[in-house]
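Entry:
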Amino acid sequence: MTVPRTQLTTDILIVGDGTGGAAAAIQAARRGANVTLVTEQPWLGGMLTSAGVCAPDGHELECWQAGFWGAFLRELESRQPGGLDNAWVSFFTYNPRLGAEIFRDWAAALPTLNWIAGDRPRAVLREGDCVVGVDFDRHSIRATITIDATELGDLYALGDIPYRWGWELQDQFDEPSAPPVLNDDLRREAVQSLTWVAILRDYGQGKRAPQVKTDTASYTPSHFKGMWKQHGGMKFMDYGRLPGDRFMLNWPIAGNDYATDLDRLVGSEADRAACLAEAKAHTLHCVRYIQENLDSRYGLADDVFPQPDGTTGGLALYPYFRESRRLVGLRTVCESDILPVAGSAESRQTAPLPVWNDRAESIAIGNYPNDHHYANFTHPVQPKSIRWGGRNTGTPFAMPYRALVPEAIDGLLACDKNASVSHIANGATRLQPVVLGLGQAAGMAAAMCVDRGCQPRDLDVRSLQEALVSDPEAPAAVVPLFDRTPRSPDWGEVQLAYCDGPETYPASGYTGGELPNATVATVAAASQIRGKFERRGENDYMLKDAIGTRWRLVTLTPAIDRQLREIPTGDFAGRGYFNRGGGWIRLVAIG
């Protein structure tokens, strides 16, 4: 017997579990819109929570910690005992359950946000070229604006909305890193690898963790041989170290990345299910290999993710998808949009702002290097990194509004990895902080469209930018700058000035303003640091402490980066945070 769907109407319908969807729903509801968010999973937060990627990449510098990304970090800092300095792959690692609690609390505080969990989209409702809602297993919901927040752009396929999947050739967007032709490797791996993340637990020296049970017939230990050869076992574990002797397993070198016939993800429902089952089994095999060949004390954590059988465990709710169906939008972000303007590394650090009608249309920022994961080959891409604060970091770029708007369909916005980007550019635009920014922009845009009675393609972008940078709870960056943070008194004024005059945007990313220091609270909570300072090379610093231990010195604070470039070798005093997993001190004050 078919159960009738519950009929609902809402201003804004957000469909999917993606990180961008949670941000879009919260932002739109904070703006006062009636919002319905429908997810399959019981957690909000997407990659940052449900998919277990709790060592996020990008936006690490304090000047980029704006919008929902900055708000999320501040909440983590206030709630997580022991802080966020634990691993060497990221400056911010945390228990995914805590991240899910933050998003849940944000959503629960909003009376106009209706969150429906455990429902799946089955059909997109259209009236001509306008999306007007979605049918789910249990609900039929009509909306003024619909936002696709699915991890794989599922609404595009359900609604016959043009999208791209896989590689574009060099002649399509004139991207220097795109292939001129497809070879067999590229055909076999149309998109980047996915990873079914696991959270491991150290059960204690001399103890044996619960052993992972896998299908022995399909277990191939040779797939994982050399997993920690490059780093050694302990440093391998410290890659994704979390508080409480937990570890994130999201490892690309003979690890749990999975890439076998990923075209099945956009095939039939049975094809997708088979692909995901294999990816989960691959991660379980990986954990078994660690137990048998590194140390049996490591096993799946038993207290992180809700499992289908009602228990909690260490396997993420679903995989970390690095790539999605990608919208055919009014504008497609290509490699040229994320690479620094040609010139010397010293003066040319930023990509050009995206311009439309003589104004910048940027609504979110990114800065990650262009990072591509493939299982059986390496695909070289143009470099986009600089030395800053004692380490390498990615060069900044801005995301355009029209990458969220379909080329020919109304009533719909993208807000996640499913935005209009090329396969090559996706390596830098797919990261969690970027997607949070896209979600915040999509939620704000949708609420403004409802208020003004207009379609997304007709929304005044300048008004959207002003709303984002002046948001009272999470002011967002729309232009990346090295010497401004939301705490700067002229934050909004400077951001909008470059939107109005993109030709004046400095290629260095520095405006000549006063470099921000860390907050007083951040400095006060840090440890006192003393020792001998050593300059090892360009933007490469070391400290030898009183007992002879050598620590790398790094910083995320603009004023400290400038000081480190100028101070002499010799006695040193400052304040910072020790990261024993990374072997460095994150400086927040000098002197």
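The chain has a mean pLDDT of 96.
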